[in-house]
């Protein structure tokens, strides 16, 4: 990977897929608390394991005795995931893959991962959130991206603000220079025709894709 890339292993659930294996291959890895349980399934070795370890039982801790561990108090002012991201940035990360950011028991953590990703994107970091089955990418002011999706798979654009100049290409429901009102469901459950292109003039949004979901085809 030419861009310094770190995979951050978070506590949410994942499904090991070919896309997830491919996107994390060759990246440097930091585990946040119980997120280290994903390391073996993905064939990854974290270079450091951070957190308060309140969600890592003794068996999990014993499974990784050689990984550098940095403990924080439970009363800290940041989540384990935020600490792991900050550690990656301090080590030179320019691209972040947040593995396990989209699933699990804590919807507050999932929402915080969305907000963190948008903030990081505004600071010019490349960010991807993934559970294996779902992938999400932040889009901010004057932003655009292309994403290679299987023909017939589902994707949505979620507006966190009013969106202006929204253009979606190579989809069943294309848009051109569209203004999406805040809270509108207009851009939910679109269908990819292959490589999609999404551009945005103003606003904050997340592109959420389901590459293995063909229910809309």
UniProtKB/TrEMBL annotation:
<dbReference type="InterPro" id="IPR053149">
    <property type="entry name" value="TPK"/>
</dbReference>
<dbReference type="InterPro" id="IPR007373">
    <property type="entry name" value="Thiamin_PyroPKinase_B1-bd"/>
</dbReference>
<dbReference type="GO" id="GO:0016301">
    <property type="term" value="F:kinase activity"/>
</dbReference>
<keyword id="KW-0067">ATP-binding</keyword>
<dbReference type="InterPro" id="IPR007371">
    <property type="entry name" value="TPK_catalytic"/>
</dbReference>
<dbReference type="Pfam" id="PF04265">
    <property type="entry name" value="TPK_B1_binding"/>
</dbReference>
<dbReference type="GO" id="GO:0009229">
    <property type="term" value="P:thiamine diphosphate biosynthetic process"/>
</dbReference>
<protein>
    <recommendedName>
        <fullName>Thiamine diphosphokinase</fullName>
        <ecNumber>2.7.6.2</ecNumber>
    </recommendedName>
</protein>
<keyword id="KW-0547">Nucleotide-binding</keyword>
<dbReference type="InterPro" id="IPR036759">
    <property type="entry name" value="TPK_catalytic_sf"/>
</dbReference>
<keyword id="KW-0418">Kinase</keyword>
<dbReference type="InterPro" id="IPR006282">
    <property type="entry name" value="Thi_PPkinase"/>
</dbReference>
<dbReference type="GO" id="GO:0030975">
    <property type="term" value="F:thiamine binding"/>
</dbReference>
<dbReference type="Pfam" id="PF04263">
    <property type="entry name" value="TPK_catalytic"/>
</dbReference>
<dbReference type="GO" id="GO:0004788">
    <property type="term" value="F:thiamine diphosphokinase activity"/>
</dbReference>
<keyword id="KW-0808">Transferase</keyword>
<feature type="domain" description="Thiamin pyrophosphokinase thiamin-binding">
    <location>
        <begin position="144"/>
        <end position="206"/>
    </location>
</feature>
<dbReference type="GO" id="GO:0005524">
    <property type="term" value="F:ATP binding"/>
</dbReference>
<dbReference type="GO" id="GO:0006772">
    <property type="term" value="P:thiamine metabolic process"/>
</dbReference>
């Amino acid at each position: 990977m030419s861009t310094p890339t770190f995979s951050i292993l978070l506590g949410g659930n994942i499904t090991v897929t070919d896309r997830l294996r491919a996107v994390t291959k060759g990246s440097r890895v930091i585990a946040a608390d119980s997120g280290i349980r994903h390391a073996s399934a993905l064939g990854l070795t974290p270079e450091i394991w951070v957190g308060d370890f309140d969600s890592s039982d003794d068996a999990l801790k014993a499974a990784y005795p050689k990984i550098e561990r940095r403990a924080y108090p439970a009363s800290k002012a940041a989540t384990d995931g935020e600490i792991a991201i900050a550690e990656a940035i301090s080590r030179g990360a320019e691209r972040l893959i947040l593995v396990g950011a989209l699933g699990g028991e804590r919807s507050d953590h999932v929402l915080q991962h969305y907000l963190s990703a948008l903030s990081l994107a505004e600071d010019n970091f490349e960010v991807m959130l993934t559970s294996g089955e779902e992938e999400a990418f932040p889009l901010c002011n004057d932003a655009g991206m292309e994403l290679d999706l299987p023909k017939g798979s589902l994707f949505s654009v979620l507006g966190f603000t009013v969106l202006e100049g929204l253009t979606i290409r190579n989809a069943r429901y294309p848009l051109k220079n569209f203004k999406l009102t805040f809270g509108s469901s207009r851009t939910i459950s679109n269908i990819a025709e292959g490589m999609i292109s999404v551009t945005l003039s103003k606003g904050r949004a997340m592109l959420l894709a389901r590459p293995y979901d063909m229910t809309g085809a």
